[in-house]
Amino acid sequence: MTAHFPPDAARPPRVGLFSTCLVDTIRPSVGFAAAKLLEDAGCEVDVPPQTCCGQPAFNSGDRATTRALAEQMIAAFESFDYVVAPSGSCAGMIKTHYPELFAGEPDWAGRVERFCAKVFELTAFLVDVRGVSAVDATYPGTVTYHDSCSGLRELGVKDQPRRLLASVEGLELEEMKDADTCCGFGGTFCVKYPDVSNAIVEKKSANIAATGAGTLLAGDLGCLMNMAGKLQREGRPVRALHVAEVLAGMGDEPAIGEPAEKGAKR
Predict the structure, then answer these.
(1) 178 Ramachandran zone, left/alpha/beta (phi>0; psi -120 to 50)
(2) DSSP the chain
(3) Per residue in 79-95, pLDDT tens?
(4) Which residues lie below 8 Å from residue 205, measured CB to CB, with a gap of 6+?
(5) Helices 106-117 and 63-77 sit at what angle, rounded to 10 degrees?
(6) Which of 263, 193, 253, 187 is nearest to 217 (CA)?
(7) pTM greater than the 0.85 cutoff
(8) d(Cα 260, Cα 241) in Å, to the nearest integer?
(9) What residue ranges do the domains of the chain occupy?
(10) How far apart are CA 225 and CA 233, in angstroms?
(11) Architecture of the structural domain at 132-247
């Protein structure tokens, strides 16, 4: 797949890394992993001052706040060749819903369309744009993979992370039942409907455990936090990591929800 805005071949493509709110505040290692993968793919990476993409406000019906955040996002990243996020949810929000916010506005519509065309989820960018087919990483053990709703349904992210994981030395992927079914997080959904959310993640936890995998991977930190919390409350010995961490060779980091001094166990 070719990029919509191919950079000057004489220089590396300039990538603005959108770290996302959850990565910035909860799991910075995902951001470092994403930056490493992008640099290994020959990109010049920068992390400009940034704020929320606006998804929580959008999902709550607050279009005015969403619009203000979208304008800030565009201003912060518009100068880059590409905008990459280690999150199908945030990238999907931008590519799918920003055009809705500016529809029918001649001064904005074309600008937003051009901006959204260069926004990508991390693994999709690596595989589809940069042509990465393998990574230099080792992770001995069996993993299973959860497809996040936004990444899968809004962006078509499914095969890309699996292609890259297939190149990780020692890693064996064991697919879970209903890997593409929601984990129950859904952003504000889990707050508004906790009983329904818990019932959904309970099924997901059982499917994860049934694989016998020692590690759960996904491309969205919100999903991972939700599933990791449920697995830990049920006493299931399954580590949860962002797929970028494993692909970048950072799989020995304490897993999500683990104390910092706890080492990797697979």
Answers:
(1) left
(2) ---SSPPPTTSPPEEEE---HHHHHT-HHHHHHHHHHHHHTT-EEE--S----SHHHHHTT-HHHHHHHHHHHHHHHTTSSEEEES-HHHHHIIIIIHHHHTTT-HHHHHHHHHHHHTEEEHHHIIIIIS-------EEEEEEEEE--HHHHHHH--SHHHHHHHTTSEEEEE-PPTTTTS--S-TTTHHHH-HHHHHHHHHHHHHHHHHTT-SEEEES-HHHHHHHHHHHHHTT---EEEEHHHHHTT-TTSPPTTS-TTPPP--
(3) 999 999 999 999 999 99
(4) 227, 230, 231, 234, 236
(5) 60
(6) 253
(7) yes
(8) 14
(9) 14-128, 132-247
(10) 12
(11) 3-Layer(aba) Sandwich (3.40)
**Single-letter residue type at 14:** R
Residues 37/247, Cβ–Cβ less than 8 Å: yes
Report how far residue 16's alpha carbon sits from residue 13's, in angstroms, rounded to the nearest whole number: 10
Chain segment 130-186, per-residue pLDDT in tens: 999 999 999 999 999 999 999 999 999 999 999 999 999 999 999 999 999 998 776
